[in-house]
Design brief:
The protein has about 475 residues and is of the alpha+beta class. The protein is built from 11 helices and 15 strands. β10 and β11 form a beta hairpin. The two termini are about 30 Å apart.
């Protein structure tokens, strides 16, 4: 299924020279802007030292309450100004404070949008990082997360007020980051507890279903035994009463029908159970949550029988419901079974996503001469030396008929949240192809898309060792 204009998409890799250069130029400009700002501020040596001390101590202390103390004691220790810090309490959503003195009642405090002097007190709003406001564990007043109060303020010059405004800005960014960090820690702890709950309340009970299914299979087997016994009785009765043979035969056919129907439905349900269990146990591994990323459990497997065939059977009825033919006569169709080393659970979900997309986006095409078809196909090709000398790759294709995607869409297909123009009217989140890319890259492979005359081919390329190489202990 190779085409000259095939395109590969990588999750990571070196950025282009132009992008890198543009980033360097942007940072250089911001450095020059800041240099100009600080020259215009003309802070005194003590003011500059105060900012440096604040930054150093804000990094040194880990508890947010200690950072509160740093905020109020720098003005007190270096400038002989009493200070009160008012901060939104994320737990109770009310004002709390830290002060270098006995603070006045909280009920008299209100936020100011701009620095202002009232009754000899300089009140400066503390603002968070506007780009990250939504990540805070509480809802701020606009972008205000607190207020800094300094006094006596009657002798403060405009230059002093400018300095304390910049000081409040640094407090805002430090506290904002601390709040997000605390939120993330709580989130991580919740996830850890959730993983334990999932293991105890989902994974372990789910294992008992397999026992129940085995018991049900045994019960269905008893029906087969009963049917055989019934046949023998029917033959004996038919000898005694030949006129009843037709009725006995009809009853035998009914029992056979019910047995086959129940057995077929059992097999379908058990197949779905096996697939769901595989996905649950793969996605909810404790190691994923402990590492904060997908952790592969790779093993040698028969790719066709253990990965592809189960997903084909799972989606076969969905393809039939939409009138989609499964065509295995195209190029790249497997003519033999292969063994690869992969995480079976995650790669199975890669195929599940690809087949799910084929169900949703396969369209009818004209093959020529007015002959129209709607079909999908799957298969593979061995790519010798694809990953380097002696390092073969295996290209696994899933093709669906329909209009080819445009060039602009192709470049964004594997981006998180992106949905192509042909997705209108079909349910989806734009996460499937992104998930595929992440899993394949973890396997050291690549993902890609290529347009063809009759439709769209999505493919993954995985490292592959031939059977001869696998069997050679010196390879």
């Amino acid at each position: 299924m190779d085409t000259p204009d095939s395109a590969l998409f990588h999750a990571v890799g070196p950025v282009s020279h132009d992008e890198h250069q543009a980033r360097l130029e942007l940072v250089t400009k911001r450095i020059q802007d800041k240099l100009g700002n600080y020259r215009s501020y003309n802070f005194t040596q003590l003011q500059s030292v105060a900012l440096n001390i604040f930054f150093d101590l804000a990094q040194e202390f880990t508890a947010v309450e200690d950072v509160y103390a740093v905020c109020v004691m720098i003005p007190r220790s270096l400038f002989n100004l009493d200070c009160t810090l008012y901060v939104i309490d994320g737990q109770r959503d009310i004002l709390s404070c830290c002060a270098s003195h006995c603070p006045r009642s909280e009920t008299a405090v209100r936020f100011e949008d701009e620095p202002v002097v009232k009754d000899g007190h300089l009140l400066i709003p503390i603002k968070g990082n506007r780009e990250l406001i939504s990540q805070l564990p509480f809802t701020p007043h606009g972008d205000l997360i607190g207020m800094l109060e300094l006094f006596p303020a009657d002798s403060l010059t405009e230059h002093d007020k400018l300095f304390w405004g910049r000081y409040a800005n640094r407090i805002g960014y430090q506290l904002h980051n601390r709040f997000i960090s605390l939120k993330n820690k709580e989130h991580v702890q919740f996830i850890r507890n959730l993983v334990k709950d999932i293991g105890h309340n989902v994974i372990v009970p789910n294992m008992y279903f397999k026992l129940f299914y085995k018991r049900l299979e045994a019960r269905i087997g008893l029906i087969k035994m009963f049917h055989s016994k019934f046949n023998r009785m029917m033959q004996e009765c038919a000898k005694c009463n030949p006129d009843s043979e037709g009725e006995w035969r009809k009853l035998d056919q009914d029992v056979d029908y019910f047995y086959n129907a129940i057995n077929d439905q059992y097999k379908e349900i058990f197949s779905h159970y096996q697939n769901t269990s595989l996905f649950l146990e793969t996605l909810l591994r404790t190691s994923h949550f402990e590492e904060g990323r997908y952790v592969l459990e790779k093993r040698k497997c028969n790719f066709k029988s253990q990965v592809i065939d189960p997903q084909v059977e799972r989606y076969r009825s969905r393809f039939a419901d939409r009138g989609i033919e499964i065509d295995t006569s195209m190029g790249g169709v497997p003519d033999r079974e292969i063994e690869v080393v992969v995480d079976v659970g995650l790669i199975s979900q890669v195929y599940s996503n690809l087949f799910s997309n084929a169900v949703k986006y396969t369209r009818e095409v004209d093959e020529g001469g007015g002959h129209k078809r709607k079909f999908m196909s799957y298969g593979w090709d061995i790519l010798e030396g694809y990953f380097g000398p002696g390092l073969d790759g295996i290209k696994l294709n899933v093709f669906s008929s329909g209009p080819a995607l445009g060039a602009e869409q192709r470049s964004r297909l594997f981006s998180e949240g992106y949905r192509a123009e042909n997705s209108q009217g079909e349910y989806g989140t734009g996460h499937g192809l992104y998930f595929i890319r992440e899993v394949v890259l973890l396997h050291g492979g690549e993902v890609g898309y290529e347009p063809t005359q009759l439709g769209n081919n999505f493919f993954i390329i995985l490292p592959y060792e031939s059977q001869e190489r696998q069997d050679d202990p010196e390879a």
